[in-house]
Amino acid sequence: MNAFKRYEIFKRFQDQRPHPTTELNYNTDFELLVAVILSAQATDVSVNKATAKLFPIANTPKKILALGEEKLKQFIKTIGLFNTKAKNIINACEILVHQFNSKVPNTREALESLPGVGRKTANVILNTAFGEHTIAVDTHIFRVSNRTRLAVGKTPHEVELQLLKVVPKEFRKDAHHWLILHGRYTCIARKPRCSQCIIRDLCEYPNKTDV
Q1: CA dist., res. 136 & res. 124, Å (int)
Q2: Which 3 state secondary structure label does DSSP give 62?
Q3: Angle at which helices 172-185 and 119-128 pack, to 10 degrees?
Q4: Residue 104 and residue 75 in one domain
Q5: How many other CB atoms are found less than 10 A from the CB of residue 57?
Q6: Residue 160 placed within a domain
Q7: Between 82-99 and 29-38, two packed helices, what is the crossing angle to 10 degrees?
Q8: Domain limits at 117?
Q9: Domain check: are 176 and 120 in the same one?
Q10: Does a structural domain hold residue 63?
Q11: Pair (64, 35) in one structural domain
């Protein structure tokens, strides 16, 4: 895919959604961190249902620690891998309290030192909370990037590095959100909604659907 097509793709995304953001509900950096940890292999809808009950009770590292792991599990038990996620959140809160004065750190190294936080989660926090030009490659972005030929790679990390190279600088901060939303609602996994797609004429996917 050439540079003109890439620019036009993101220009259309920008026109469609001038101010994209995550669909996870949060009010603070810490709430965002917890929500993103919970969202691994889970839907944003399921996470929002759980955090709607959890955050009014406990929405700081100290309050989560006071709640305890077993009670935390009761709030998040509808989410996949909730046992592991509860343990990670508790351990992350211990580190936040003792090493970061209960504040969410704003560097990749510090974020990735927290249990349950890998590169993708760190990218989401850096982008959404701190405005950095990172791109967190989830299943949606991986699919859209490869399918459209916007950025081709065999692993999420490969796709991330490609996107950072080819996405025009002016669009890089919001690229993450645009690609996720496009993958979630239009360029879906089994049968992409090509007839509704605003970048259909720019996309290089050979098996477009017409339904």
Answers
A1: 6
A2: helix
A3: 110
A4: yes
A5: 13
A6: yes
A7: 150
A8: 29-128
A9: no
A10: yes
A11: yes
Active-site residues, by number, are: 120, 138
Residue entry with tokens 């580190």: 95
Q: Is 202 a domain residue?
A: no
Give pLDDT, residue 15: 96
Same domain, 142 and 161: yes
Supply the mean pLDDT for the chain: 94
Q: Any residues with CB less than 8 A from the CB of 162 and at least 6 apart, and which?
A: 145, 151, 152, 153
- Residues 67/57, Cβ–Cβ less than 8 Å: yes
Instruction: Specify the DSSP class assigned to residue 103.
Output: P
Convert 111-149 to b/e letters by CB count within 10 Å (16 or more is b): beebbbbebbbbbbbbbbbeebebbbbbebbbbbbbbbe
Percent helix, strand, coil in the chain, to 5, is 60, 0, 40
Residues 145, 166: Cα–Cα separation, whole Å: 11
Task: Identify whether residues 33 and 124 lie together within a single domain.
Answer: yes
Q: Which of 210, 206, 179, 184 is nearest to 196 (CA)?
A: 210
Could you tell me if 121 and 36 lie in one domain?
Answer: yes
Kindly state whether residues 70 and 123 are assigned to the same domain.
yes
Output the domain CATH number for residue 103.
Answer: 1.10.340.30
The H-or-E segment that residue 125 falls in is helix 119-128
Give the mean pLDDT of 21-29: 94
Q: For residue range 138-192, what is the model confidence (pLDDT) as tens digits?
A: 999 999 999 999 999 999 999 999 999 999 999 999 999 999 999 999 999 989 9
